[in-house]
Amino acid sequence: MRNQRQRIPIPQTIFFFLLFPLTSLHYVKSQGLDLIRRTCRQTDDYDFCLTTLQAVNSSYSADLAGLENITVTLGMRNATSTLYLINVLLQRTRWGTPLSDYLEKCEEMYSYALINLRFAVDQLRKRAYAQVRSAIGESIVNVVGCDDQKIYWPPLAKQNQDLMKLGDLALSILKLTGFQGRVKPALDLDC
Fold first, then answer.
1. What value does the mean pLDDT take over residues 149-172?
2. In the chain, how many H helices and how many E strands?
3. C-beta separation of 60 from 28 below 8 A
């Protein structure tokens, strides 16, 4: 008698391999959504937190530290896109006008904010939470420096508000990770 192999029906095998990843993906996504909702309930702006984190697919599989990293990375993207917008506006603006002075000041402030946010991501990897908190705080101070200028420019006003909210969100999540320490700001605000 020949060695006969048991045949597995191909349609059932394909169905199993297609269905299994979908059910496990649904489970992971629902668990992630639960963490996102629990996290956002403990922040100052639930709606902003929820819409921000739900927009990033990797949030659903992240732990609390991962959500912190995602939030800071979104802040870096915001600062980068704002710097690009500022450069475009500077090219279209006549030098020596109040608007060009404002844009130059904001360019400087956003450059510092971006440096601080990159440092925060690096420090997150090292779990140096005091430095993360300080760097995020300084990036918010930088954006406030741009927002406090006397000229109101709607595209930058929205970018400023978004980055300040992302910074506040990152600080809230950092607090949830267990870091409660106080950090002296590196900038002297009494100038």
1. 84
2. 6, 0
3. yes
